[in-house]
Inverse folding.
């Protein structure tokens, strides 16, 4: 699924950084600037991968391995652990996406048709899940630091 550049910049990049932060938290790694660097590398990779003509779902499998590879290489986390942590990051992101989509639909905040057709609205309504990923990563990081 191709993503407009502005949507990628406003939602995709922060989402990528949040996913890396989540992996760091699960791996009990300190939150450093590496999260931003790895998140940007991962975000660029995700943007490029989404332009390739894969069967739906294949890009997600590839992105799990890219996230695992980048965090293993640049954060010195064992690769087999980063595969699990990356998969969990995707699962949590999907749960948050489904929850916020359900919330928007249930409260009639935004109709699914309008959400489908309005790229900026879709980008804005996708920000709560990014915020929740950051909050979850921060919470796990605090708990694991004890």
């Amino acid at each position: 699924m191709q993503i407009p550049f502005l949507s990628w910049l406003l939602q995709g990049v922060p989402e990528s950084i949040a996913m890396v932060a989540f992996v760091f938290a699960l791996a009990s790694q300190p939150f450093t600037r590496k999260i931003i660097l790895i998140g940007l590398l991962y975000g660029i990779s995700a943007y490029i991968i989404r332009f390739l003509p894969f069967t739906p779902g294949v890009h997600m499998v590839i992105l799990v391995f890219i996230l695992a590879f980048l965090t293993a290489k640049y954060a010195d986390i064992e690769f087999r652990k980063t595969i699990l942590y990356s998969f969990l990051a995707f699962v949590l992101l999907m749960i948050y996406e489904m929850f916020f989509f359900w919330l928007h639909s249930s409260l009639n905040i935004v109709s699914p048709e309008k959400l489908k057709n309005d790229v900026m609205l879709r980008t804005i309504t996708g920000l709560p899940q990014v915020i929740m990923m950051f909050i979850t990563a921060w919470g796990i990081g605090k708990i694991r630091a004890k």
About this structure: The two ends are 40 Å apart (CA to CA). Helices lie at 5-26, 34-49, 58-75, 79-106, 112-117, 119-125, 127-145.
